[in-house]
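Below is the data:
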Amino acid sequence: MKLAEVFGVSRDPVSSYIERSAVDAALEAALKESRQIIIYGSSKQGKTALLQRHIPDKRRITVHCGPTTTAEDLYRSFLRQLQVEIVSEKTAETSREVSTSISAKFTAILPFFGGGEAEAKGEATAGAVQGTTRQTIEFNLAVAQDVGELLLKVGAVNLFHVLENFHYLSDDVQRQLAFDLRTFEEMGLRFVILGVWRERNRLVQYNGDLQDRLAEVPVEPWEVADFERVVATGGPFLNVTFDQAIKDQIFDEAHGSIAVVQELLKKTCEKVGVVEFSPQPVVISDSALLREAICEKVEEYSARHIRSLESIAAGSRTRRATETAAALYLPYYLVKVMVHRTYDELKEGIERKTLQLMIQQLHNSPDNVRTSDVTGMLSRLPALQANARIVPPLFDFDPGTRRVKVVDSTLYFFIDNCDPDEVMAEIPHPDPGENE
């Protein structure tokens, strides 16, 4: 077996995967119920691996969300994957009376597995299209009830509809889906949402009617005992064992991130020359090699994280209502505050009021930094990161707890091993006058 098949971060399942009773059992229980499922946690913490472990490919259809994706885009993709052809109303017969907006009304041509004429909403007829029996139905792509009826007609009741990267959707789309999920649940259609955030009840904030109708499965926290089992599970596939001191240092560096553990295990194996199963047992105990592995991972993460932090710092300016007010450049100060914090200060997030005080201590116009300014900047943070193509996002603001949190699990490792002053020296202040 190859090293990349055992340790490291991979889209495909690795052989060192372990089941955790609190997580895997929660998902297994949720799959047996009728509720919609939310799998959430920081990036690279095992959401997709958990999904792949418990829902086989043939039982799920997946759509990857983006910052410009609409609910209609998602529904169109699900239907297309189920061989439903969607035709715009603009191409329909000119004599047909259109009672809804052209932008929302469509005709669906879908596989029909019955005999004779079909009873369906609108003008449904059965006919032969390229040798296949088909059915055409008028529907509104913007109405969850219509979409749900189509999904049921093509057998989607036995499938899980997966929305990956749900956090990239705009607030308006997330809010619409929070209401549509209630409709789909009543129709017996199952959805699984994967999102990068760290608090429960994210969707309930958009639609209180979802309370007790969602099964929420957090993939965090990862405990040291879990990391020990990862090493014990993966080691035999390569015929390697890790000295306890080496493992302790890796786990300490990871700050709860399974991604960092996996990458350091992989990098350390590379350092001792293990790239596949070793005919002879290998014991890894050289701390100097581990230090080299850590330095290399810091360098690898550095390029992406500094580029991402620079993009956030250069984000849209926060201004007063008047035209003459000076720009506050709050995203820049947010970055400066976060980079100079320790893991212990970051792990539970920073409350908005505390963040405001920290920014005021650094700002050249502290009295101008008001609560509304900071709240507005944090509310726009998801869009700012999405527009800057920061994948995955580094930070998330939870409006429920009013805390900004790190949601890229590798950022803790980077901040812990970098010189914050050197990082900020590479990030220019967005005000040209400050750089002179």
Observations:
- Residues 224 and 251 are 7 Å apart (CA to CA).
- Residues 90-103, 113-132, 318-325 have pLDDT under 50 and may be disordered.
